[in-house]
Amino acid sequence: MFGIDTAATAARIGLDNAWKAVQSFLYGIVVPKTSGTGIKVDTDNPTFGWADLLGTIDIRGAAGGASPVWAVYSGGIYQFSFGTAGGVTEVFINYHIGHDFVPGSDIYIHAHWSTIAAPTGQANWLFEVVSANGYGRSRFEGTAGSTTPITVGVAQTSDGAFYHCIAETLLATAGGLVTAGGNVSITSGAAVLTSSATPWTAADIGKTVRVVGAGAAGGNLDTTISAFTSASQVTLANTAGTTVTAQPNFRWRILDSNTALEVDGVILARCWRDASRAADTLNVAPFLHFSDCHYQSNGVFGTKDKNYPFYT
């Protein structure tokens, strides 16, 4: 029988690991080329870290009207002011998805804003959005299978004059649907949707929703909320084609990160505010500094190929 020199073996393993560390330093870190690989953070609960998709604000034409006013913010610094008068004020932002995007991960969109006077009430920021993959892999769509944009929104109270506020809401998730909770009821030919829970606020007017089974012949009813009555009752922009009674069939409809969001994809967004909305009670003009998206990154690793297919 031959014995094993455990000390010598351990020393050899230590030297092997040390040499591998030297190789990594000399030749760089090598990771698999497959989708979903990369650097994760948190040794106890590893997950991909978050990064920003930055977007530049554009307006339709001269400032004023539906466009924000280019106004003094501080000293000689000008920013876009969204005013306090009723009516829509809007800007447009394009986002390009980088090669470090983790396929199928969630994306959050948000407005960076502040006021220059002491505020009361809340600002209601809304985002009308379509997205598409490149290389002819999908058309621009919002609601899955439709070129109709989805609308998401968020209402936020300011922390005070000149405080930097970040109003964020979920824009995309795998499958494109977020469960609201509570049973809902709607009658065929009617547009009034009721819930056994209290999932709605006035800020939800204009948001995109799905009522499973309430469409024609029991299909899905993809539409928007057109009016708010109470936390348990809203009106939809489209009428039901099939009656749904006391079923957990209501979903928030957002972008599907599995179908129209991948590397080299594009998100087109309209960011807007209507000071006459019931949910928008801010008493002073908010300034929008910019809007960006939070997405999960594989740790700034690019893809194997520069064009589609990216991971071959």
Task: Please tell me about this protein's structure.
This protein is mainly beta. Helix content is 7%, strand content 41%. The chain folds into two domains: 7-38, no CATH class; 41-297, no CATH class. The protein contains one helix and 20 strands. The strands form three sheets. Strands 1, 2, 3, 4, 6, 9, 18 and 20 form an eight-stranded mixed sheet that branches. The chain has an eight-stranded antiparallel sheet with strand order 10-17-13-14-15-12-11-16, with no helix packed on it.
Q: Brief description of this entry?
A:
With 312 residues, the chain is mainly beta. It contains 1 helix and 20 strands. It has one helix spanning 6-27; strands at residues 40-41, 47-55, 69-74, 77-81, 88-96, 107-115, 122-132, 150-157, 165-173, 177-179, 184-186, 192-195, 208-211, 221-230, 233-236, 244-247, 250-253, 255-256, 266-274, 286-297.
